[in-house]
Amino acid sequence: MLKVTCAIIVQDGLVLAVQRSKKMQMPQKWEFPGGKLEDGESEQECLIREIKEELHLDIMLGEKLPEVIHKYPDFKICLIPFIASIQSGELYLAEHQAYHWLPKAKLLELDWAEADVPVVKEFLKSTC
């Protein structure tokens, strides 16, 4: 099972969603940014590293939300979400093709990767 972290980055009341490129698995689906946990790395270290690599942002992690286990046709994923805020940097997409800053109420209007849907729904219950 793949262990993958993701960041629900909140800034000025808006939430960051990124769109997978056409070259990635699940092309053009929306997701919270993050990536695969490497050996010897904590969940927090992984997420901070991945956001720096993918978005050129330094983030501070807040609350951890419940993990989601999802089985895709050819792999199984454990998605580990954290709510986060930007500390510094300027958003630059290294891998994704697009991004949106959205109010919470608009999040479910996007075509999310299946594993991210329960994360979105759990986040909508939070007070952030």
CATH architecture: Alpha-Beta Complex
Taking pLDDT < 50 over at least 5 consecutive residues as the criterion, the unreliable ranges are none
Gyration radius from CA atoms, angstroms: 13 Å
The CATH first-level class comes to: Alpha Beta
Strand content: 35-45%
Number of strands: 8
Give the N-terminus to C-terminus distance in angstroms.
30 Å
**Average pLDDT taken over every residue:** 96
Notes on the structure:
The protein is of the alpha+beta class. It has one domain: Nucleoside Triphosphate Pyrophosphohydrolase, CATH 3.90.79.10. The chain has helices at residues 43-55, 116-125, and strands at residues 2-11, 14-19, 30-31, 34-36, 57-64, 68-71, 76-89, 98-102. Strands 1, 2, 3, 4, 5, 6, 7 and 8 form an eight-stranded mixed sheet that branches. Strand 6 (68-71) and strand 7 (76-89) form a beta hairpin. The longest helix is centred in the middle third of the chain and has 13 residues, at 43-55. 30% of the residues are buried. The model has no long low-confidence stretch (mean pLDDT 96).
Concise overview:
With 128 residues, the protein is α+β, with helices and mostly antiparallel strands. Helix content is 18%, strand content 41%. The protein starts with a strand and ends with a helix.
Topology:
Blueprint: E1 2-11, E2 14-19, E3 30-31, E4 34-36, H1 43-55, E5 57-64, E6 68-71, E7 76-89, E8 98-102, H2 116-125
Parallel strand pairs: 1-7
Antiparallel strand pairs: 1-2, 1-4, 2-3, 2-8, 5-7, 6-7
